[in-house]
What we know:
This protein is an alpha/beta fold.
Amino acid sequence: MQKTYYPKQGEIEREWVLVDANDQTLGRLASRIASILIGKHKPTYTPGVDCGDFVVVVNAERVRVTGNKLEDKRYYWHTGYPGGLKSLALRELLAKHPERVLRKAVWGMVPHNRLGRKLMKKLKIYAGPDHPHQAQQPKPLEL
C-alpha cells in the first residue's frame, strides 16, 4: 500500500525569492507570485499546507497592464454608510499606492481562507527598487 506524503512543519524549507516587477504584465506576474507563495514549484507540494517561499517584490510602481485597463479597471469598496460605494481607477491606485495593486491581484489567486491569509503574510511588496530584506539573501527569480 502506498502512503501519501504529508510534510510536517519542521520539514518545510523556505527560501526567499526576489522578483523585479519592472515592465512585467500585472496578471502574469501575480499568478507566478501566487504559485511560489503556495509552493506549487516544489516537489513536496501538498494542497492545504503552507509549503511555499517568501516573495519580495521590488519596482511595483513600474508594473505594466495591457489594453485600456488603466482607465477601465476600477477597484470598489463600501464605507458602510448609505450611498457609500467608492471606487478608484487603476491609474489612480497605481499613483497613490502601487503595492496595493499587486497585493490585490495576488490575493485574487490564493485561497480565500486561513491558509490564504497566512500566505499573504509572506509577500513583501515595495514600490521602488530598495527593500530591507538583504539579510535574508533573496535569490532573484527569472520571469
